Amino acid sequence: MTAMPGTGSATRLDAPPCRLGEGPLWHPERGQLFWFDILAGRLHAGPRRTDPGQTDPAQTDPGAEPGHWDFPGTVSAAGWIDRDRLLLASDTALLAFDIETGRTEPVAPLEADNPATRSNDGRADPWGGFWIGTMGRAAEPGAGAIYRYYRGEIRRLHAPVTIPNAIAFTPDGGAASFADTARGLVWRQRLAPADGWPAAEPEPFIDAAADGLAPDGAVFDRAGRFWNAQWGAGRLACYAPDGRLLGAVRLPASQTTCPAFGGPTLSRLFVTSAHEGLDRAAEPAAGALFALETEAIGQPEHRIGL
User: Fold this and answer.
1) Residue 50 has pLDDT above 90, yes or no
2) Are 235 and 248 spatial neighbours (Cβ–Cβ below 8 Å)?
3) Which residues are catalytic?
4) Considering the entire predicted model, what is its pTM?
5) DSSP of 185-251, one letter per residue?
6) Cis status, amide bond into 193, omega within 30 of 0
């Protein structure tokens, strides 16, 4: 029987509140957390880890990079290329971003001819590819899709999708997950061992709509458990590899968006949230960045090959 690992209570970190916080990424070589405020067009960065006990991404560090970078359009998700570069998903392209200089270089267009859409959730896969979803700027039904970038090619995998989320990969590399938040459904898709392209039609994994829940961002831990932020419910749920609910942790922000494992031992869960459309006087923690200590161990984020 698979049990839910123990977790501590959520700690609100000293980081700027986000209109739409998303896409947390722990860079394994830098020991540094990155995350986005999509609607502000902003990439946030915590300090690089200078000692093994430092785990708060908002700690003051004299040697830290700037706290954020602003972009002319929306940015939503990232993977790491090498120590000093990230692959960013914007509303029109995938971009190689130099952390030290702040410069970007185009890698591949992403619905550049469609101003009605933007990027949303994304994650690197075990083969060095990058899966990324798009959606309508006002979440218009069926306006989005899910793509994979791999070795210079970007290919559409799934459409139509309204709000793509929960892109993640099982620890054995055998399957990918993805969700349409608007439908409340999470699917799993078997992947080809040689190159990671889909090898079968997606199959239902979790029917969150049956419980009145909206699955947002997600990640698998090393034991194959699926950790899913659930929009509007203020919680992070943990599911067994077969999709059974193991338990959930409450957070003081109703619009939780995405988790990421990080810290020196990959046992700390960072969770982003959003305050868009909420009364922050009534919900002061909305849009905050949270951290939970857990007995689970995450997977290191996969490196992207250009």
Assistant:
1) no
2) yes
3) 216
4) 0.94
5) EEEEEEB-TTT--B-S--EEEEEGGGGT-EEEEEEEBTTS-EEEEEETTTEEEEE-TTS-EEEEEE-
6) no
